[in-house]
Amino acid sequence: MALRTSKIRKAEFHSSGKEKAVMEYFEAKTVDEASRFLREHPEARVLAGGASLVVLLKNGLIRPSHLVNLKTIPGLNAIEQAEGCLRIGALNRHGDILSSPAIRKICPLLPEAASKIASPPIRNMGTIGGNLCHADPAADFPPSLIALGAKAKLVSDEGERTVPVEKLFVGYYETVLSPTEILAEISIPSLNRRSSGSYVTLDQVTNGVSIVGVAAVVGLADDGSCAFAGIGLGGVAPTPLKVERAKEILVGRKIRDADIECAAEEARTICNPTGNSFASAEYRREMVRVLTKRALRDALKRIGEGRTFSGE
Amino acid sequence: MKKRKIELNVNGEAHTISVPPQRTLLEVLREDLGLTGTKEGCSEGECGVCTVLLDGLPVRSCLLFAVDVRGRKVTTIEGVAQGQRLDPIQEAFIEQGAIQCGFCTPGMILSAKALLAHTSSPTEDEIRVAISGNLCRCTGYQKIVKAIRAASREAQRDVGQALR
Asked: What's A7-69's CATH class?
């Protein structure tokens, strides 16, 4: 959403020039059909909510031969809880996630992340699948999904595979999806009743891009020791990141301040930010440390207050 | 370029139009249907002047392809008043002086309309979140927020009277 490129290209898009003549439109009825179409038309792009894609198109950053509309495929916008998992269809819009009673109850961290994405009208358009596949390193959903241990189901006409959300990204605006694969669903494993999470961001303006975003999820065992810990980072590397060592630093012990400091230092160490006009690389790195502490403390505080994932 | 025939319901009126795939809803509204109340500003989803309601929810008409919203219900600022009678939100904007240059006003009113449709008595915070995607460079927002509050009270009074 925050791409800032030449406005001249936009004029081209609007003009009745050649570009306009080449783009065709296809409404897929099944994932298989969409996948086959993408195989036959390698220059085609999929359209979900359009909130990011149309900006790319208008700025001339992509010039697809076809748009393949996924919204005409039934069943990609389900939200269901089954087999110890919360399954969220890729076509759920940010607003759907914000207002879903089931998600608000089982996993309020996701609505918290959704509320930070762009503005309300964009949240009524953009989808969780699109947010992930656009692979903006500063996107607001990935840190929370990574902290939760979420997985993405990728489907093509040749089969399906499941990848952890942190493995979905390979670089700036680049994912592991093959040209014929479609992200169909996100699944979030259920955590125990004494778990909670927090997503904290460094923002410049309301509705703006999160300069740095850190999500932390903590689950406690009956004796108060840490049974689950996940930390996801956004805006501080070419891709969203998982703090892999969070588990070994936090799980199995009663979390004390020193452990939080240690996890925050680990987050600072693994990130690889570049600077821009919003914040220098150094500042981002320091903010990762600060926000990781805040997110972990906030998650623990929420557990203390009974604001847990299945409770409320 | 293949044109597609689509049906659109705009402000309660059914339209059948032929559009190329990349024609935006904004272009269709302004250029094909002559509904110029919806404005074009940044044209990339940031400013909010192109906001319309799609099945009752505010969206950016500059980022939606018309083919993608076929069969759906679109409400523009032209569809807000009931005949000659302005919507209470429009009345409140006039009364509170919430309009200066007027360019953001259609989008503001539609965002407010969507808010009041499901939250009859919003808090100031809820109002500010609801219009957070609509930029205004004149008013400083205070009077807009006041107008939406006034309209919500107005709406409640109407409901109260109807119940009596």
From this structure: alpha beta
Spell A147-178 as b/e; 16+ CB within 10 A means b.
bbbbbbbbbbbeeeeeeebbebbeeebebebe
Nearest neighbour of B4 by CB, restricted to A14, A25, A120: A25
The secondary structure of residue B119, as a DSSP letter, is -
pLDDT per residue rounded down to tens, chain B (164 residues): 678 999 999 999 999 999 999 999 999 999 999 999 999 999 999 999 999 999 999 999 999 999 999 999 999 999 999 999 999 999 999 999 999 999 999 999 999 999 999 998 999 999 999 999 999 999 999 999 999 999 998 777 777 777 66
Residue B160: how many CB atoms within 10 A of its CB? 9
Among all residues of chain A, which has the CA nearest to that of B127? A120
A13 confidence band (pLDDT: 50, 70, 90): low
Homologous superfamily, domain B4-79: Beta-grasp domain (3.10.20.30)
Which chain A residues are Cβ-neighbours of B43 within 8 angstroms?
10, 58
How far away is chain B from the Cα of A284, in angstroms, using its nearest Cα?
25
Q: If you write DSSP's letter for every residue of chain A in order, what string do you get?
A: ------HHHHHHHHTTSHHHHH-EEEE-SSHHHHHHHHHH-TT-EEESS-TTHHHHHHTTS---SEEEESTTSTTTT-EEEETTEEEEETT-BHHHHHH-HHHHHH-THHHHHHTTSS-HHHHTT-BHHHHHHHT-TT-SHHHHHHHHT-EEEEEETTEEEEEEGGGSEEETTEES--TT-EEEEEEEE---TTEEEEEEEEESSTTS-EEEEEEEEEEE-TTS-EEEEEEEEESSSSS-EE-TTHHHHHTTS---HHHHHHHHHHHHHH------SS--HHHHHHHHHHHHHHHHHHHHHHHHTT--SS--
Q: What is the CATH number of domain A79-189?
A: 3.30.465.10
The yes-or-no verdict on residue A14 having pLDDT over 70 is: no
Distance set, CA B135 to CA A22, A158, A304, B104 (Å): 34, 46, 39, 7
Class of domain A195-304: alpha beta
- Å from B19 to nearest chain A CA? 11
Residue A1 with chain B: CB contacts under 8 Å: 45-46
Tell me the percentage of chain A whose pLDDT exceeds 70: 92
Nearest CA in chain A to B50: A121
The predicted model gives A246-263 an average pLDDT of: 97
- Residues from chain A that touch B65, judged by Cβ atoms under 8 A, are 25, 47, 50, 54, 67
- Architecture of the domain defined by B88-163: Orthogonal Bundle (1.10)
